[in-house]
Amino acid sequence: MEKSEKRRTISIICMMFILLMIIRVIEIMFVKTDQTWIGENILHKICCILLIWTVLDLLRLHWSDLGFSKKGLFSGLKYGLALGISTFFLSYAAEFMVLFAMGKHPSLRFYITNFSLAQTHTNGSSLSAVIVCIIGNIVNVCAEEGLFRGLFFKTGIQCYSQKTANIIQALLFGIWHITNVISPLSDGSMNLTAAAFMGMGYILLSSILACEWGMCAALSGTLWTGASEHLFNNFISNSLHTVTETGADEYMIIRITLSNMLSLLFVFIIYAKKRK
């Protein structure tokens, strides 16, 4: 493909990404939907789905062309859940061992919160809270998987190698999550140094998962494995908490980091074998 065509493709991806980032920041800073009964900044993700729908309509494509096809649905859901359950089981076990070694007495509690490494809002454990959480996470997964592993990845591999396209969407997905430090920074609960450190952590952890889900898409030809694990990861992080006498989720960073690294490792091993 000619250089001009490559530049045009990258320009389209960047414009879409910047537009959605602006909408995302506006919602986080001013609308603050995550601090309402919804418990999730969902409006910009609805805008994301509408934008994807518009682009697909203009290109005369369908959601199945992005990877949300009927083929491979059940196997994708199965493998995604297997990845999520196995890696989180091991990461919760590691977190418990660390807490026990510190002389604490951890236990598991089920209640709904928003996901944050720095600031959480509890919505309770009622049926309505669980249903709202599930719906919010489904919208989130449709938007993010459709945009990054769907539209951006599929567009990228028309101009670049599969590896390069995967790196591009993973980096964009990482940058997408740096906005999670905006709320604690603006309300003064986090200083600039801590926000910078936390922002880099969000970029790293999100990029790791995005890279893994991109490999899942390349291996299966669909988005179902990544979407299934994405949905499970988000819901379990929103709902199953480690609680001690001194607080809740004090060492959640151990759980999240380890589950991400293990998941990437498992998929990379399978990906390397398939490539050979």
Q: What's this model, at a glance?
A:
With about 280 residues, this protein is mainly α.
How would you explain this protein's 3D organization?
This protein is 71% helix and 6% strand. It has helices spanning 3-31, 43-58, 63-66, 73-101, 127-156, 162-176, 182-186, 192-220, 224-239, 252-275; strands at residues 107-110, 112-113, 122-124, 240-244, 247-248. A 3-stranded antiparallel sheet has the order 1-4-5. A two-stranded antiparallel sheet has the order 2-3. The mean pLDDT is 90.
Number of beta strands: 5
Rg, nearest Å: 19 Å
Tell me the series of helices and strands, N- to C-terminal: HHHHEEEHHHHHEEH
Residue runs with pLDDT of under 50 for 5 or more positions = none
Portion in helices: over 70%
Instruction: Tell me the fraction of residues in β-strands, as a range.
Output: 5-15%
Mean pLDDT: 90
Q: How far from one another are the termini?
A: 26 Å
User: Which strand order spans the largest sheet, edge to edge or round the barrel?
Assistant: 1-4-5
Q: Total number of helical segments?
A: 10
The gross shape turns out to be globular
